[in-house]
Amino acid sequence: MAIPVQQIDKKTGDLEIIRGLGGLDVGDHSKPQLLTIPSELLLEISRWAITGGLSSAMTPLQLGGICRSWRELVFQCYELWQSIDVFLYKSGVWTQISLLEEWVERTGDHPFSLSISAPRFRDSTVYERIIQILQNNSSQITTLKILMGRDFFYAFDETETAHYSWPLLTDITLRADHQFTPGRGTVHFGGANAPPRLTSATFGMFHISKVSLAWASLLNLHLHAALARQIYEAMSLAKRLQTLTLSGVWLDTFRITSITTSHSLRRLAVLPKGERTFGWGCRDAFESLRLPALESLEIDRGHVRSPGYRPTFALYSLILRSQCSLVDLSIARTRVHESLFIETLILLPSLRSLRLIDNIWMDDDYALQDSAIFDAITHEIHNHQLIVPNLEKFTFKGDAVSFSPDVVMGFLAARWDAGSGESRLQSASIQAEGPNWDIKEVNLATIEGWRERGYTVSIA
Q1: Mind listing the pLDDT tens digit for each residue in 396-445?
Q2: Alpha helix positions (H), 107-216
Q3: Integer Cα distance of 361 and 370 in angstroms
Q4: CA distances (Å), 10 to each of 23, 44, 54, 70, 423, in order?
Q5: CA 168 to CA 255: how far, in whole Å?
């Protein structure tokens, strides 16, 4: 629920009925409908208006302004105040902070989640008031999200954060607008008062080694715009980490001199963040990782350079040296070395889901070989087995492919019409464009026959 600086825009649908009730005169007995609505129904309407349908459509403060009956009900129901999402504007910030303090007070002694976003403020007293709110209510906060200028975190670093108590905190997000390094050493969410329930954390523009947390309990970590070295710092700090998401990791001068192993990591996602993406020259970072428990890997480079550039993501080395049993693999908008990728698939008989989206396919001569993956999966036999024999779901999307639908039809026919009955493939979604991409009537008839047999197939 967001705290608005001004009246929110008028929405359509059922919410207009709720707003329309504000025009009723509760003293007019010719309009008794509002007075006869049971409190339970009013409460359900309030819950829906705040949390259902439209995101941040109304706030408890707005519902309480409809009439006295609604105000009494809303102000007595603490659960309507348990989620606070506020963006502070430079104009009207003190009014918003006052509303924030009132909102927090309405939660009573009950748990609540808090999200605060703001630009930079020259007036440091704004930060002081926010920090005071955090200090006074740290024992009630379950989820904390702070997206602020780094000046706020410098001010936060200077307070006695180590003495705060966070007994209910399970999820924390700290994101600065520029790279933040604490002046006094660490930002404390740990020590003697470390959050015992903390399992998830997100950091943006932070040196995570300078954040004191209950790292031993952390299961999920998301890094925004971090330095490459922090991948290794994260794994050395969070020994039980199960999921790691990287959004726009920067290359730095850090030289990798040792192998880093995580026996707990099950999912790794490498995602873009604007023009910042992982991999431009960061090959060594993944060649030095060993992830034997890895089950899910997602790589999305966001954009690719021309085919003249060599691939930089060391997928084959990561899989070979980790000896993991990958179940789900997704590669999008990445330069892929075709022969190495096929060798990688040979290492993954456990694979059940494969997604290939808008990639550039190359061989050793940098020629575009976008049909090779279909040829390999269809015809290549390794130890008398199909490559990825346990594949259940396959997705391929290419904006400018050179092959015809016959390549795809041959691939699916090898899985579904071979008569062996061993294929586990149940779903195939192929979307492509190109000069030779022309789906014929005979293709459509074959596709319909597969659907009648219970397969999920889409070719467009």
Answers
A1: 988 677 888 888 898 888 888 865 556 688 999 999 888 888 898 988 99
A2: 124-137, 150-157
A3: 5
A4: 15, 21, 12, 20, 54
A5: 39
